[in-house]
Amino acid sequence: MSVDSLKTMMGIVFQNLQAVQSNLANVDTPGYKRQEVDFQTVFMELQNHGELLQPSSNYVKIDNTTSWRLDGNNVDPDKEITTLIETALWYQGITEMLSRHFSTARQVLQMLR
After folding, report:
1. What's the subunit arrangement here (predicted)?
2. Which of 50, 62, 74, 78 is the most buried (most CB within 10 A)?
């Protein structure tokens, strides 16, 4: 995966963190519907096409599933914490790939000296 693709993924990770933050901030807002980012679709598009096929903001989706709460809010704090952990794992994976990419580039440059 290219550095540009990894940069794009970092932007998506940031958007997901913002969505989780918004979800948790609105946990008591009547009628609020949670937001989420579809990482799998983003990752597959970057893998298959080398770029996103839509603007990155289009990957933030509103979860319109029904709520078990009477006020219509469908934010589950436990699910948001799980999403936060998943997002941290995505971040960790992306930073590891970037680190390996730059480590390889550094080794090549050292061999050329």
Report:
1. The basal body constitutes a major portion of the flagellar organelle and consists of a number of rings mounted on a central rod.
2. 74
Residue 75's contacts (CB-CB under 8 Å, 6 or more residues apart) are: 23, 24, 26, 27, 32, 34
Structure pTM?
0.79
Q: What is the pLDDT of residues 66-91, one digit of tens each?
A: 888 899 999 999 999 999 999 999 89
Mean pLDDT of 53-78: 88
Amino acid type, 65: T
Decide if 51 contacts 2 (C-beta within 8 A).
no
For 87, residues 6+ apart whose C-beta sits below 8 A from its C-beta are 13, 16, 17, 20
CA atoms of 95 and 93, how far apart (whole Å):
6
Residue whose token pair is 């913002």: 18
How many independent structural domains does the chain possess? 1
Write out the residue range of the structural domain in which residue 40 sits. Answer: 3-112
